[in-house]
Protein: Oxygen tolerance
Organism: Psychroflexus salis
Amino acid sequence: MKRLVHIFFLIITFGTQAQVSFTTEVSREKLGINERLKVEFIIDRDADNFKAPSFNGFKVIAGPNQSVEQSYVYGKSSFKKTYSFYLQPLKRGKLEIGQAEIEYQGKNYKSPPETVEVTAAVDNPNSPASVARSQMADAIHLVAEVSKSKPYLNEGVYIVYKLYVDRNVNLRNYRPVDEPSFKDFWSQNIDIDQLEFKEGEYAGMPYRYVELRKTILYPQKTGELSVEPLTIAVSVEVPTNRRDIFGRRQYELVEKTFSAKTRTFNVQPLPDEGKPFNFTGAVGQFDVNLTQSKNELKVNESLSATLKISGNGNLNLFNLPKLEVPTAIEVYDPERIDRVNTNASGMNGYISEKYTLVPQRQGNYTIKGVEFSYFDPITSEYKTKYSNSLNLSVNPDPNALQNNTNILASQDSTKNQKQQIISPDSQFKYIELKTNLKPKGSQQFFKSAIYWSLIFAPYLCIPFLLFIVKRRKNTTDSPAKKARNKANKLAKKYLSEAKRNIQDQNKFYEALERSLHNFLKAKLKITSAEISKEKISEQLLQKNIEQQLVDQFIGILEGCELARYAPNSSAAKEEDYKKAAQIISEIDKAL
């Protein structure tokens, strides 16, 4: 039995030793885009002809480095050959380390693939650095500065990314590696015409700095909101301890990845105390003005009244108050005009709505001034501004009076006209006693004038019937339904505006975003102040809308926020336009 047991264990040991092990080991399964990854391919045989994978999504910093370990302990031998690489990730997401190949005794072996997750840049990367890179880390700093860390909801703040460089370091170039994500913010980049170095200080020491990017942010949620860092790769000439034959210091060209720290905003909600009933979400400092094109006009003559909100604040993120006019004046849907610029202080300029008014009766009319409420973040209180009233003097139309006079005169002349008296002998004189009758021919009903009249008469009546149905529908619709129809028309108008401005990326995505918001206000009966991604998802799911449709709608909104500041092609904008129209149609059908 002892011999059999020994033979059995020898067979197992021989089978185990005969099996070749070729594995892949990574130093970390999750790392930041500014960190480095060590990858090792290990085989327990003295194999040759190693072939590394392509390392898609990574930049090879060092490698392959080969090492061999062999030991013999208590009669048992072990062997290990290792091929190691140091990699720098180039993008975020789940990246795969492909299969390496090696040859042993005429057979090819492949290592198993490994997947690692690359996240946004971390604040304290733990990658190793050479002496030159250590000097470079002390000489260059990427800093994200914010104008205010505790803003109110919808208050404009800015974040600026500054690159501080030591005076002894020669900056060659830089390239962005990972763009920051402004989730839960309405954002817009401020164009920097030319990168220019300025003198400044960092940690109390003199440095040169350059502003790489500046972005205006309007928080759309309350609470702690984080902004992912900007990550860039910088190439500089770093001085070394070596000198040339003339005694001049030699420099080394080094590239290193830098990232600004994650910045967190503590967004405060707008206070409920003192909030006016007509508040629609305006935050900033504003003025309101109401003007008219003419003071005196005739009946059925048109004039224009323009309501303008000007100032500094979230001009594109709230609705204007409605103009109330007397019932004797017909009013048409307003035309919106935006003249908004964005700079370091936020949005400034004006937005306006131009109304077309047509008086139906003569008289003197007064259009009440508009009341506009907003929240001032400087004084932390609500304020209300009032516009002036409009006075109109409507005179009668002389052409209409002349027509009425002619009609009355015609009626009077008809009444005063004497009747002609016909004698009994001639009262039947108009009857023809001699007829010219002809027998009925062979003319058929088919293809006759009456035939064609009866064929086309129903079709000619269709426009008349549609007009009657539309008039009846307009008279029976409730005010709420009319408001929803109006918002639908406004959404279609903005979609048309986005189509016209497909060459201008900012205007295209702003119009597309407004059309989506107006569609929601029409269907969900919510105000602009209530619009947020969480509120939209909650309301749509309560309406039994499928989760897939909700995710697509939120994706389009987020795409509009991001696409305004990323380069895009006309074909991509055309695709975004079609997606927006399709998702609006599908949600409308589901509702």
Observations:
- The longest helix spans residues 449-476.
- The chain has four domains: 20-119, 131-267, 284-395, 479-590.
- Confidence is low (pLDDT under 50) at residues 13-17, 127-134.
- The longest strand covers residues 58-73.
